[in-house]
Amino acid sequence: MKKTSAPSLDDSVQFIKGVGPGKAKLLEKLCLTSIEDCLYFLPFRFDDRTQCKKISQAVAGEYVTVTGEVVNAGTMFMGRRKKVFEVIVQDETGIMRAKWFRFNQTLFAEKFKAGRKIILSGKPTLNKRSGMEIIHPDTEQVSGENVASLEIGKIVPVYHVTDGLHLKSMRAIIKNVLDKYLHLLEEFLPADIIRRHGFPSRTEALSQSHFPPQGSSLNDLDAFKTAAQRRLIFEELFLIQLGLAFRKKYAGEENTGVAFKTRGELIKRFVKLLPFELTRAQKKVLGEIMEDLEKRKPMNRLIQGDVGSGKTIIAITALLTAVDNATQSALMVPTELLAEQHYLNILPYCEKLGVALSLITSALKGKERQRHYENIRNGETQIVVGTHSLIQKEIQFEKLGLAVVDEQHRFGVLQRDAIGKKGDHPHILIMTATPIPRSLALTLYGDMDVSLLDESPPGRQRIATELFFENRREVAYNLMEKQLQLGRQVFVVCPLIEESEATDLKAAVTVFDYIQTRLPKYAACIIHGKLKKEERQNIMSRFLKNEIQVLVSTTVIEVGIDVPNATVMLIEHAERFGLAQLHQLRGRVGRGAHASHCLLVAYYPVSDEGRARMKAMQDSSDGFVIAEEDLKIRGPGDFTGTRQSGAPLLKIANLLRDIQLLKTARKEAFRLIERDPDLTATEHQLLQKALHRFLAEPTGTTKII
Ligand code: ADP
Ligand code: MG
User: Fold this and answer.
1) Cβ of 129: how many Cβ atoms within 10 Å?
2) Is residue 705 pLDDT above 50, yes or no?
């Protein structure tokens, strides 16, 4: 497409030379719609084509580039049906074959006429019958033009591509974009930051990250360690951290929340009701919370604590402190089941203390619902427990002083903000049970103060974790039976509720039937999300009273359930579960005085990732270690629900690889916002513009701001 107005970074990719509507569609598949998208679409690795080798020097399995003359070319059959296009190339030292399984006959016949001089690049293999060959090599004709080639004689970029869009055209597209648009880029990083870190300019960094200059190191490039790449990584992380620094600045200071009086009468009475002594970690975290609450600046704190570390008591203390200060408080949790659990947990305390507690779930209907809402509005209800239904329009608080969000990783950051808007700058406390790697925490919660609950209540047992493949499933069930004979209770978790054609997952019902036949002496029950609330509560309370010994369930029990006499967590199809989920499930046992077991039952075929996850479970019981492992296995792009939870989608930076740069970027960003809170200084004008642009991006970081 031709364009008449001045070129801009927002131009559609259609304006790139050689890109028509068809190619534009393909680029869109790679999330490339604008010129700027293309500029920041970096190669994920590089090929070293600096040196052309002789054919006889080619080694099987080692990437190589050779030049030679086409001796022969044409299709042949491999086996009865498979058609292959084969080109035989020769230089003065020998011959090499190139083979394609997908090809355009006419095009290829034309391209590889005998006598042509061509260049082949790829990884050769040694074919026992016909010698060295390269399957699907990159090829190019040798001619005068090759002097300016993007393909040969240098380190060449390798991009992610999609069906129908070849690597070669991708390189040409990027080259065209750089040639035509690079000069439009403005430098927005502050000069002193560039100087202190020795970063190249923005244009230099982009150009060199795509097409590395002579003498670049392939290793550095592949590890994203060149100065050019580091500058771009820094740039991305810096903008994110700048946004967070901004957010942190404005979350508190200019607005005034309500300063609470802490450790009042109500709290004193509450502490006396506790059946146990608080752990050192709990006391420390509570101290930090109380200090926050005493200020007029609203609290904005995250508690990170492993499953079972005792976050609930901390939440209740905070909720009651708000009540003690004549305001209301709310506890928001991700599932109805967990809301019910928390409600039942808190209720006895509230009854003894004379505090009005209300449970809001989607199950509330009609008049009953209206009554609950009315009581929240007129302030009669003091503490409200509920799911995200708490943030719907109809719910209005008379005076919300504090909100706790539990298991935050299940919510979007937007929901965190939404609950905050239910009051006039209420104190906010976020609790997350899946410890997340530090680098992710800094990007997700970088605007919050963090408390670590790094100690479990006393008497916790290490949970023995064992893996059984399907052929040894019986052994797992025998172990389980032994625990039942000792008077213990067990959980059996299955991924799906009904056998569906689409999957071969063991249905909970099938497992349930199996257990009833195999262990007729014990009372078993099945619990799942489709059951009515009353039925679920009923089953749970019977399980708690040991009237039920075997609880078969779908993953609904994943969070929050607490039954100290349960000592076995048997997970069917463990290979299908995510690592964080497995860890959460395991945390349901080992809560009492008895030794506990986590039995993973896996079914073939098991993917490499599945194996890695189950190995991580056997190797560690530390949530933080598991979280790091999870990040490694999945890769940062796909970390546990981060997409849903509003984590910024990083284009260049990698939270696993770039932790050091992340820390640097964070330090610089927070320092800058200290000095120039609104980025109004003349030398920060372009930065301010860049930040706005960055934050406005639909797929970018809007959500964290
Ligand atoms: P989580 O951090 O996973 O939310 P919970 O708050 O549910 O953990 O606590 C897990 C279990 O530990 C509960 O049974 C709770 O009563 C118990 N608990 C919490 N704090 C202590 C403590 N200081 N001493 C003994 N048991 C405790
Ligand atoms: Mg909890």
Assistant:
1) 4
2) no
Q: Are residues 197 and 289 in the same domain?
A: no
Same domain, 525 and 506: yes
Question: pLDDT tens digits, residue range 88-106?
Answer: 999 999 999 999 988 888 8
Query: How many angstroms separate the alpha carbon of residue 646 from the centre of ligand 2?
Result: 22
584 within ligand 1 shell (Cβ under 6 A): no
pLDDT band at 411 (very low <50, low <70, confident <90, very high): low
Tell me the pLDDT tens digit for each residue of 469-514.
Answer: 999 999 999 999 999 999 999 999 987 555 454 443 456 888 999 9
344 against 3, higher pLDDT: 344
Q: Which ligand is nearest to the CA of 584?
A: 1
pLDDT of residue 255 exceeding 70, the answer is: no
The domain that holds 115 is classified in CATH as 2.40.50.140
Say if CB 316 and CB 438 are below 8 A apart: no
Question: Considering only CA atoms, which residue is closest to atom 10 of ligand 1?
Answer: 308
Contacts of 661 (CB under 8 A, 6+ apart): 230, 233, 234, 237, 653
How confident is the model at residue 356, as a pLDDT? 97
8 Å CB contact between 242 and 299: no
Domain-embedded: residue 8: no
User: What residue numbers bound the domain in which 572 lies?
Assistant: 463-620
- Cα–Cα distance between 236 and 233 in angstroms, integer? 5
Q: Determine the pLDDT at residue 2.
A: 57
616 and 501 inside one domain: yes
The answer on 439 and 471 residing in a single domain is: no
Query: Is the Cβ atom of 433 under 6 angstroms away from ligand 1?
Result: yes
Q: Do 115 and 81 reside in the same domain of the chain?
A: yes
> 591 in ligand 1 pocket by Cβ < 6 Å?
yes
Q: Which of 307, 309, 452 to mutate to test the pocket of ligand 1 (most atoms within 8 A of CB)?
A: 309
**What pLDDT does residue 3 have?**
59
Residues in the chain: 705
Q: Which ligand minimizes its atom distance to the CA of 304?
A: 1
432 CA → ligand 2 middle, Å = 8
Euclidean distance between CA atoms 18 and 166, whole angstroms: 13
447 within some domain: yes
Q: Ligand 1 pocket check: which of 309, 312, 333, 584 to mutate, most ligand atoms within 8 Å of Cβ?
A: 312
The torsion of the CA quartet 334, 336, 341, 343, rounded to 10 degrees, works out to 90
Of 412-426, 566-580, 596-610, 656-670, which range is least confident? 412-426
